[in-house]
Amino acid sequence: MPAPARTPVTIVGLGAMGAALASAYVTAGHPTTVWNRSPDKAAPLVARGAAHAPDIRAAVAASPLVIACLTTYEATRAALEPAAAALAGRALVTLNSGAPSGARAMAAWATGHGARFLDGAIKNVPTAVAEPDTLLYYGGDRTVFDEHEATLRVLGGDTQYLGAEPDLAALYEQAVGGTLLPVLLGFFQGAALVTERGLKAETLVPYTRKWLEMVNAVLPTLAAEIDSGDYSQPLSSVGIFHAGIPYDEELGTEHGLDVRWHEPMHDLLRRAMAEGRGEQSVAALVELLRKPEA
Ligand SMILES: NC(=O)c1ccc[n+]([C@@H]2O[C@H](COP(=O)([O-])OP(=O)(O)OC[C@H]3O[C@@H](n4cnc5c(N)ncnc54)[C@H](OP(=O)(O)O)[C@@H]3O)[C@@H](O)[C@H]2O)c1
């Protein structure tokens, strides 16, 4: 039996991520058309069998499924504008980072030109594209996801549909991404502390990993507290975190580290204490984030 025909795919944007997406489709045997503002970036993919569209109109016209991976929604619209008329009847998927408002504007523009639209986020680096564990999630037109799920799954085995609203992937991107910088800053502060003592940062890695596993393990409990609004059975109370403030400050006074990045978090803890939340779960801080002081 011959292998079933693979859906033709067009990749618009061949930066680090777009090139990885196109490469995954070439490897998986999909007829792959590529386009990039700077055309020289297409050469390595063409050498492996991709077709290089001479212009953006030809790129869009080449496939029923067009996946754009440029820097922003604005850049994507600018690039696709000359091909807007060719979008009618096609599925357009965007895979750039950006705010939910950008995703909604992109959806309105795309559907206004007759495209079916899905917005996604890829939660990993270009070298992880096509790996079985790589997470991508999508929001928008369910018919696009259902029709092209197998093709989208080429980009990562952990491919999920969030719902019909086209800004959901951008929303979850922001919601999940909020942990990244505070977690990394905490690691960098630890690295500054141990390296000042002549120890290697790498000595921290196994212990930090265990610590993050603990954080990982308590997330469902914290989420259940937030969803129920019941903070009365704390694993860790606001008061415990509040009592740790002097230890954070000591890192500055005793070890000469710049600990100013803690100040807004300490302020949040002090305000929670002032609201009488000392005995509540630390998850109650979400209530203060919901109502910032005027
Ligand atoms: N790289 C990662 O680790 C990673 C991980 C997850 C998500 N992402 C997201 O994926 C998206 C692409 O990232 P990347 O790493 O591929 O970025 P990149 O390497 O900087 O490539 C950016 C791409 O956007 C194109 N572009 C920018 N402005 C344009 C415009 N006005 N008109 C036409 N084309 C334009 C560039 O074209 P030229 O080549 O002509 O400049 C290039 O193809 C971003 O939203 C990023 O946040 C990236």
What is the CATH superfamily classification of the largest domain? NAD(P)-binding Rossmann-like Domain
- The CATH architecture of the largest domain comes to 3-Layer(aba) Sandwich
Overall 3D shape: elongated
- Bound ligand species: NADP nicotinamide-adenine-dinucleotide phosphate
Instruction: Give helix % range.
Output: 40-55%
Count of domain modules: 2
Q: Write down the overall mean pLDDT.
A: 96
What is the CATH first-level class name of the largest domain?
Alpha Beta
Q: Termini separation (Å)?
A: 68 Å
Strand order of the largest sheet: 3-2-1-4-5-6-7-8
Strand and helix order: EHEHEHEHEHEEHEHHHHHHH
Going by helix content, strand content and strand pairing, the class is alpha/beta
Largest sheet: 8 strands, mixed
CATH-defined fold name of the largest domain: Rossmann fold
Radius of gyration: 24 Å
Strand content: 5-15%
Number of distinct beta strands: 8
Structure description:
The protein has 294 residues and is of the alpha/beta class. The protein folds into 2 domains: 9-175, NAD(P)-binding Rossmann-like Domain (Rossmann fold, 3-Layer(aba) Sandwich); 178-290, N-(1-d-carboxylethyl)-l-norvaline Dehydrogenase, domain 2, CATH 1.10.1040.10. Helix content is 48%, strand content 13%. It is built from 13 helices and 8 strands. The protein has helices at residues 16-27, 43-47, 56-61, 73-80, 100-112, 142-153, 168-177, 180-196, 205-228, 238-243, 245-255, 263-274, 285-290; strands at 9-12, 32-35, 51-52, 65-68, 91-94, 116-122, 135-140, 158-163. It has an 8-stranded mixed β-sheet with strand order 3-2-1-4-5-6-7-8, sandwiched between helices. Strand 1 (9-12), helix 1 and strand 2 (32-35) form a beta-alpha-beta unit. It is elongated, with a radius of gyration of 24 Å. NADP nicotinamide-adenine-dinucleotide phosphate is lined by residues 13-18, 36-38, 41, 69-71, 75, 78-79, 96-97, 122, 125-126.
